[in-house]
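This section describes the prediction task in plain terms. A model, or a person checking by hand, is given the sequence of a single protein chain and must write out its three-dimensional structure as a string of tokens. No templates, partner chains or ligands are provided. The sample shown here is typical of the held-out split.
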Amino acid sequence: MLEGMDDISPGAERTAGPCAEAADAADADLAFNVFAKACPSRRTLEDVTGRWGSLTLGALYEGSLRFNELRRRVDGVSEKMLSQTLHSLERDGLVHREAQPTNPPRVDYELTSLGREVAERLLSLIHFVEDRMPSVLDAQQSYDVARGAR
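The expected answer:
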């Protein structure tokens, strides 16, 4: 577990808060609960774990990048999607946008301290998935063969 982080295991106790009205009474003591439809933590989780959000956070973990550098690093993302992703992550407090008053304008993006913590966890998952891809590919092939897919 990262230094300075609270225990975030599934059974961890937290004080009641704005999302205490959980679908499950057992979760009623949580300050935030992504399983509650109206909880703002659900939107943040979507921003972080969506395809472009997780890749953007992972790319920025390496250091500050300009928009086009980031777009090249996150292969396949459109300008529009990257822009929307960066706005969401900035609003969530995970990314800092620094505009330089130059001609042409220069804008750099970097992770906040919270963004770095989130990116570390995402990168652990990303590396885990990459390391296990031979098993995943074998499972996919077995599935496809069993169902007659190509």
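For orientation: Residues 42-120 form a domain with the Arc Repressor Mutant, subunit A fold (CATH 1.10.10.10).
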